[in-house]
Amino acid sequence: MEINRKLVEKVALLARIEVPPAAADRLVEQLGKIVAMVEQLGAVDTKGVEPLANPAGTVDAFRTDEPR
Question: Which of 1, 48, 64, 68 has a CA between 20 and 30 Å from the CA of residue 33?
Fold first, then answer.
């Protein structure tokens, strides 16, 4: 996905945030790097890897909800 100034301005409009022209050019570069990193993650083979809900492996510390 190509990130350009027009896209940054559209996203800013939809998010209702003001982006000064000088910052828009910087955002094009930064968002481009973020999208490139996400595309790299999408290329990783994850077949056979179980989804992980909690990487710490902790168990729910709360008591069970029982009527009294």
Answer: 48
Per-residue three-class SS string for the chain: CCCCHHHHHHHHHHHCCCCCHHHHHHHHHHHHHHHHHHHHHHCCCCCCCCCCCCCCCCCCCCCCCCCC
Question: CA of 57: how far to CAs of 46, 47, 52, 53, 65, in Å?
Answer: 20, 21, 9, 9, 22
* Residue 50 tokens, joined: 């179980």
Q: What is the pTM of this model?
A: 0.62
